[in-house]
């Protein structure tokens, strides 16, 4: 099976840096089911093409441990697996282009988020035209599908089940590879590997920033997880967008009013601290529906406010609400789509940054990436980070012991845990930090939220 990647952006051979595969050489990788080969049939400054060829050994698969799965015995040897894009190709992508897939380029990091004029060709894929359009077109691809004849020597037999898929888009390479990594297995009805709970983590990691907002999200998730209901429900729950910026748990009406008040207190406290710093520019990282952004442009004189979020749906809501403000206020605000775990040149040069109830939505092993993006690369003079105080959860009447406040939270820290993290980040990146409670404090359990105020030491 083949995948062709063509870059027509000026300095097109930069594709070799991104893929970590030199255009002048042939690269081979041994896989559990065969061999993956990467080569460049064309490598010029105006056009560079990399081809991933995956040679699947169907006989070896059958003879391997666990290879015999029953069914039509001859079908284990005579099938379309060696040439049709399938889960084998997604695995080969991960093994051969893993660095590019994860958005890293050591020698040329500025290339990672650069949009490229890309053309992708899958010469053979088995899927209906409608499904290919529904999966790829909403992501901004130009989709061209050519159905293949059932038998070229007998055109009267008509079209077969396979097609050639050609995609065009101007996107960063890592985004394109992630789309393929998720969508190719979702189109494959016969995955070569066992689909268990660990597949949810892979799906969500590669689907971050786009899958939750895809109009066919549920259909993609179901197919990717082979229609396993329990896994599908868990994945969809974790993908559910956080439409309300408040992270406090649902409670009776009287408590609900108090919950809203806590959320407002948190935003008011952050806005007040930012205003007192007298910054010329502020970036709200993980801005959600833009509540803090609106506060800053409505009630302060800060000249420039940028809001960034990974959810296009939340940004749409934020934009609608900003549009209701007078032009003199809304023109000071800008909203952009982006992830907090990838270095982004748009974040450079800000005086202050805010992460309001954001870090707890990241898996703990991704916090280091966020720290590098915010504190090492963007490095604003001040950074304000708020997060729930887990010790306070016992005071919410409807919360089960050990439960988290929001379905999308990956963790919640005690005051001591938050302080340990904050002081380590400050020490690692040249900041001083002060810890503050947010909300009314309980004598034993502290405040509902907690804030770390970082100041860069020049």
TrEMBL record:
Coiled coil: none annotated. It comes from the Bacteria. It catalyses: small RNA 3'-end nucleotide + S-adenosyl-L-methionine = small RNA 3'-end 2'-O-methylnucleotide + S-adenosyl-L-homocysteine + H(+). Keywords: Magnesium, Metal-binding, Methyltransferase, RNA-binding, RNA-mediated gene silencing, S-adenosyl-L-methionine, Transferase, Ubiquinone. SUPFAM superfamilies: S-adenosyl-L-methionine-dependent methyltransferases (SSF53335). Residues 242-252 have a biased composition (Acidic residues). Its cofactor is Mg(2+). The keyword Calcium does not apply. Residues 238-261 are annotated as: Disordered. Residues 1-240 form the Hen1 N-terminal domain. Gene3D superfamilies: Hen1, N-terminal domain, Vaccinia Virus protein VP39. Its EC number is 2.1.1.386. Belongs to the methyltransferase superfamily. HEN1 family. This is Small RNA 2'-O-methyltransferase. It comes from Haloferula sargassicola. The gene is COQ3.
């Amino acid at each position: 099976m083949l995948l062709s990647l063509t870059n027509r952006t000026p300095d097109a051979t930069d594709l070799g840096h991104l893929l970590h595969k030199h255009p002048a050489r042939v690269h081979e990788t041994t896989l559990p089911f065969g061999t993956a080969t990467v080569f460049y049939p064309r490598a010029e400054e105006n056009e560079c093409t990399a081809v991933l060829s995956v040679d699947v050994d169907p006989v070896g698969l059958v003879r391997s441990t666990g290879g015999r799965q029953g069914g039509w015995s001859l079908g284990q040897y005579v099938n379309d697996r060696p040439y049709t894009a399938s889960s084998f190709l997604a695995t080969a992508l991960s093994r051969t282009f893993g660095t590019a897939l994860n958005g890293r380029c050591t020698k040329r990091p500025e290339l990672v988020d650069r949009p490229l004029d890309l053309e992708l060709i899958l010469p053979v894929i088995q899927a209906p035209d409608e499904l290919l359009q529904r999966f790829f077109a909403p992501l901004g691809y130009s989709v061209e599908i050519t159905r293949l004849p059932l038998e070229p020597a007998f055109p009267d037999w008509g079209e077969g089940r396979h097609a050639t898929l050609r995609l065009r888009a101007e996107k960063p390479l890592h985004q394109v590879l992630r789309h393929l990594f998720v969508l190719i297995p979702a189109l494959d009805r016969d995955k070569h590997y066992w689909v268990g709970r660990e597949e949810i983590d892979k799906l969500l990691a590669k689907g971050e920033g786009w899958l939750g907002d895809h109009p066919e999200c549920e259909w993609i998730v179901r197919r990717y997880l082979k229609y396993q209901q329990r896994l599908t429900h868990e994945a969809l729950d974790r993908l559910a967008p956080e439409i309300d910026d408040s992270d406090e748990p649902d409670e009776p009406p009287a408590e609900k009013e108090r919950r809203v008040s806590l959320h407002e207190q948190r935003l008011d406290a952050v806005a007040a601290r930012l205003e007192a710093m007298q910054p010329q520019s502020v970036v709200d990282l993980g801005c959600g529906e833009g509540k803090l952004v609106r506060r800053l442009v409505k009630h302060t004189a800060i000249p420039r406010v940028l809001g960034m979020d990974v959810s296009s749906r939340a940004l749409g809501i934020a934009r609608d609400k900003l549009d209701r403000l007078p032009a003199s206020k809304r023109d000071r605000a800008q909203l952009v789509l982006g992830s907090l775990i990838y270095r982004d040149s748009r974040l450079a040069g800000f005086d202050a940054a805010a992460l309001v109830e954001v870090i707890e939505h990241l898996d703990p092993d991704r916090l280091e990436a966020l720290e590098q993006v915010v504190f090492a690369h963007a490095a604003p003079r001040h950074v304000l980070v708020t997060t729930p105080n887990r010790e306070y959860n016992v005071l919410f009447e409807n919360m089960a012991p050990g439960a988290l406040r929001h379905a999308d939270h990956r963790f919640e820290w005690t005051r001591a845990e938050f302080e340990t993290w904050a002081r380590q980040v400050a020490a690692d990146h040249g900041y001083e930090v002060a810890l503050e409670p947010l909300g009314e404090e309980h004598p034993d359990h502290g405040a509902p939220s907690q804030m770390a105020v970082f100041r860069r030491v020049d």
